[in-house]
Amino acid sequence: MMAQRHSRSGSEEVVIVLDGSANMGSLAKTINESLMAVGVGVDEDMQAVFDEVGKEAVKKLKATSPVNPRGKHSGRYAKGWTYERGKKAKNYKGSGVVRNKTDPQLTHLLEYGHPLVRNGKVVGNVDAIEHIRPVAEWCSDEIEKRLTKSIGGK
């Protein structure tokens, strides 16, 4: 039986990008273009929604992130989640990023699992602890609901 090697650059990280071009691309673009045609700008509303949802996503990630009860860094990963208001993303003025500042390299390993290596040999696999994807899906749905509500939709 051959041992499989898992190669990674060490800089992978999983982030949640909140902007009009991600999952909301077509909806946000259509809304913005339609309202700009009649002279109503929604850029401030979009940024306000991104900020609200981003801050709530950080709270959810802090609550659902795995915590190692042992060691001197207990809870450091969970405490590291932050929301950063983004710069202008492509044609949209509103954007933001939810990421882990303290341990960004752990996001990929914990979310998707990884091989367990001891003394240079793969001795097993560490199971994935899916905690980012559910929050990312919630963000997508919540942004759509709040944007629709903020511009007078149902």
Describe this protein's structure.
The chain has 154 residues and is an alpha+beta fold. The chain has a domain of 106 residues. It is 43% helix and 17% strand. Strand 4 and strand 5 form a beta hairpin. Helix 2 runs antiparallel to helix 5. The N terminus is likely disordered.
What is the assembly state of the chains in this entry? single chain
Mean pLDDT, to the nearest integer, reads 78
Helix/strand/pairing category: alpha+beta
How are the strands ordered across the major sheet? 1-3-2
SSE pattern, N- to C-terminal: EHHHEEHEEH
Distance between the termini: 59 Å
Q: Work out the strand percent.
A: 15-25%
| Share of helical residues | 40-55%
What Rg do the Cα atoms give?
Answer: 19 Å
With helices defined by DSSP (H or I, 4 residues minimum), what is the helix count? 5
Count of strand segments = 5
- Report on the biggest sheet: 3 strands, antiparallel
| Shape, principal axes of CA atoms | elongated
Unreliable segments (pLDDT under 50, ≥5 consecutive)?
1-6
